[in-house]
UniProtKB/TrEMBL annotation:
SMART domains: LytTR. Residues 175-284 form the HTH LytTR-type domain. This is LytTR family transcriptional regulator. The keyword Transmembrane helix applies. Pfam families: LytTR. The chain crosses the membrane at residues 9-27, 39-59, 80-108, 120-140.
Length: 286
């Protein structure tokens, strides 16, 4: 799963405070002693800083989500539109709304107090710069690498960021090596059409050069359970279950929708009779 690591939250807090101070003092006398010595300054400064941080955090979270959904190197035109919409426009609308309520509380018309002529252009410029930083940061991390190459880099980095190698499964696919976290990335293994396959949380399917019987023994202590002759599921990926259509069976609900997968590759999510007691005991205590 693609999750580029950016600066920690305390850095975003500092950036938000600095941005708030710059906007508050821009075009006004820079008298810090007098300002911080006045009790009237603090409500405005606190509100401004909180809104600024909320906008920074909003952009940060949207960017992380877009990094997973549409990396810049995959379809940059679509990513640019989504980044501008979610990373710039949505926070700006949020800012205008909050300050409209804030000024209205004090009986001030936001359209008449200079907000849109002085403060808003600065805020918009700040948001554009912030989003440009995220784009540049992504470029320096990955350059023009393809989506598959990025996935390899991200998964490979898990081995050097504290993830136990025993919790990773190395997959060779079309000349690319991919490391999948057994606990977080994989939802199930299924033997279909004489081939063992692994299914991840993003709906991707990879062939596995192994036997289902070997995996059953290896993965039992890692939160996996065999539900029928052809399928082993990660219990953390199971949302719930219901009584099956056939007698003495259960049907599972999992975190990833597999309905769009071709029928000949769709795994069997039915818990058969001889596996029901084992599945229920493990699922109920996970």
């Amino acid at each position: 799963m693609l999750v580029l690591k950016y600066h920690p939250r305390w850095v975003r807090v500092v950036v938000a405070i600095i941005a708030s101070l710059f906007i508050l003092f821009y075009g006004r006398p820079l008298d810090l002693v007098r300002s911080f010595g006045s009790m009237q300054f603090y409500p405005v400064f606190i509100v401004s800083s909180l809104v600024s941080f909320a906008m920074v955090e909003m952009t940060h979270q949207f960017t992380r989500w877009l990094d997973r959904r549409d990396p810049w190197s995959y379809q940059w035109q679509e990513r640019a539109i989504l980044q501008f919409t979610l990373g710039v426009q949505v926070p700006l609308i949020f800012d205008v709304f909050l300050f409209s309520v804030y000024f209205a509380y004090y009986g001030i018309d936001i359209t008449q107090n200079g907000f849109f002529s002085k403060d808003f252009p600065l805020i918009a410029s700040f948001m554009l710069l912030l989003n440009a930083y995220y784009a540049v940061r992504f470029y320096f991390a990955y350059g023009t690498k393809s989506r598959d190459e990025i996935l390899v880099l991200e998964n490979s980095s898990a081995e050097v960021t504290g993830v136990d190698s025993s919790d990773l499964m190395r997959i060779e696919n079309n000349g690319i090596t991919i490391n999948l976290d057994l606990g977080k990335d994989i939802i199930l293994f299924a033997y279909i059409n004489r081939q063992l396959r692994v299914y991840d949380r993003e709906g991707k399917i990879y062939p596995v050069k192994d036997k289902l019987t070997n995996l059953i023994n290896e993965l039992e202590d890692k939160g996996y359970c065999q539900i029928n002759r052809s399928t082993i599921v990660n219990l953390e990926a199971v949302k719930g279950y219901k009584i099956g259509a056939k007698r003495n069976t259960l049907e599972l609900f999992i975190v990833t929708d597999l309905d769009e997968i071709d029928e000949d590759k769709r795994p069997n999510l039915t818990v058969t009779g001889e596996n029901i007691d084992d599945f229920k005991s493990k699922f109920d205590i996970r």
